[in-house]
Amino acid sequence: MTRGPTLPAHRSHRLPTPLDAFNAAPADEAGALLVHCLHSLRWAHRITEHRPYPDADSLLAAADEATYDLSPTDLAEALASESLPDLPEDTYSAATTALTAAHAAYEAKFGHVFVIYLGDTPPEERLDRVLEGVYSRLENDPEDERVMSVEQLRRLAQGRLMEKLRGAANCATSPNAPAPGK
Q: Per the confidence metrics, is the pTM higher than 0.90?
């Protein structure tokens, strides 16, 4: 009895990942995605030109390093496009008034919007965390606050970048969904 042709040995093919797509994207597309993560053209360009990244941890490490290397001009550019985190629609008016006043005092002292990463904060605790953050950081001197702002921008950029990569991996995830902490 003769057997028919045998199938070739099964090869394990790795499916492309969102990181593969990011690595292969034209520089202008990769840069545009990055600018949505942190609003600094130099930061986005620096990360884009160091592609390809072998894994997400390498990309995040490069993003961190680029964030810590922001010049005062780059930092001002990034902060100029940030806004206060969104609060739940049912936030009571007294809290909104307190936040508006605290933010005005912060902006008067430091000259830019208050930034804080809220990605790991439950929604019901966000208002308290923002108010606590603004009030405590108003005590900082300008240099300490610059360092704190860079750290918060770094965490925001990292969360947004991971959200973009996850969103690209899961078609059910809207790429227009709010970034973590926003």
A: no
